[in-house]
User: Which sequence fits this backbone?
């Protein structure tokens, strides 16, 4: 089990991690969701032991983890940290990169393990290819496989699918997270991709300026975002005042009223979104967005009501 107690860290004057407290049970998938620069990478590095904390401590199975000031080789052996820059060896093959840290004493086992991981990341066809010849997304898949190679107990993934195209991303995400669950590997993912946070984590921690501002199950965070910052990870948000109470409503929580009742507004623009249109409208001088099955003419007068 991983525990962070009152963890703070600063690169210079600014506080980059501010009194972080949390614990993670074995096999759990935690997602750190936050805007660029909020401290997600810094947190993963601190957990992996790449930083000397300004304050607080990190415990792994009740053992205190120490930073680089106490270790020649940083990083805990039970953990793997997948950095955004992959850190692969360009002039050797994909399979040798994946097997880099696997013992050559048991060649058959090594071979089978590499084959298994190549299947998980769908890179079997590239086993013999030199890494320097791969695309960014393919390199990211090799880096993911290498991170899993030695069966870590905890993986720290920093934007793990950022270079992988939509076409492959969904299948790969499903396969990788299913594999981690099957092997009971604990996982902490840093991302600003809400889809990843919603579909593949047991708990989301929303980070802002080095602190967690909301923690909860994906359903809870989505249905009751604490403020507009949290809500904005899930798409366009409407900030409305209903019965003198400020409310946050997503586009799917507003609909056109069939009778002349509700909030009066005027259509500004319709955006085609594939299975629906996102309508931008002006309501009491406020810009609002709502979903609608068909496009609406600019200037059309409408009445909107909340579905919740
Ligand atoms: N080596 C460093 N020295 C000084 N400041 C740094 C260093 N690395 C990061 N920072 C600063 O710390 C803050 C947090 O950076 P961090 O990389 O943790 O953010 P992030 O949430 O992972 O962002 P992104 O999503 O863009 O990767 C930023 O303000 C960044 O400029």
Assistant:
């Amino acid at each position: 089990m991983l525990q962070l107690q009152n963890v703070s860290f600063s690169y210079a004057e600014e506080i980059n991690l501010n009194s972080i407290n949390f614990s993670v049970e074995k096999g759990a998938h935690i997602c750190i969701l936050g805007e660029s620069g909020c401290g997600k990478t810094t947190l993963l590095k601190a957990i992996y032991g790449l930083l000397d904390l300004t304050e607080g401590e990190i415990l792994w199975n009740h053992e205190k983890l120490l930073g680089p000031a106490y270790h020649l080789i940083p990083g805990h052996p039970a953990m793997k940290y997948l950095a955004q820059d992959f850190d692969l060896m360009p002039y050797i093959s994909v399979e040798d990169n994946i097997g880099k840290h696997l013992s050559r004493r048991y060649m058959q086992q090594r071979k089978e393990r590499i084959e298994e991981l190549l299947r998980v990341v769908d890179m079997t066809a590239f086993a013999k290819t030199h890494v320097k010849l791969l695309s960014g997304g393919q390199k990211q898949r090799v880096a993911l496989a290498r991170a899993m190679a030695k069966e870590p107990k905890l993986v720290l993934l920093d934007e793990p699918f950022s270079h992988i195209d939509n076409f492959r991303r969904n299948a790969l995400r499903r396969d990788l997270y299913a594999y981690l669950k099957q092997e009971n590997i604990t996982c902490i993912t840093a991302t600003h991709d809400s889809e990843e946070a919603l579909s593949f984590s047991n708990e989301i921690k929303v980070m802002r300026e080095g602190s967690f501002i909301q923690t909860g199950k994906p359903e809870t965070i989505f249905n009751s975002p604490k403020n507009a910052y949290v809500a904005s990870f899930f798409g366009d948000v409407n900030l409305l005042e209903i019965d003198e109470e400020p409310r946050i409503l997503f586009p799917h929580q507003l609909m056109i009223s069939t009778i002349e009742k509700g909030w009066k507004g005027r259509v500004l623009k319709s955006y085609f979104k594939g299975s629906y249109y996102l309508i931008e409208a002006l309501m009491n001088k406020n810009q609002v967005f709502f979903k609608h099955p068909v496009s609406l003419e600019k200037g059309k007068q409408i009445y909107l009501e909340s579905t919740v």
Q: What stands out?
A: The domain at 236-306 is CATH 2.40.50.140 (OB fold (Dihydrolipoamide Acetyltransferase, E2P)). The two ends are 39 Å apart (CA to CA).
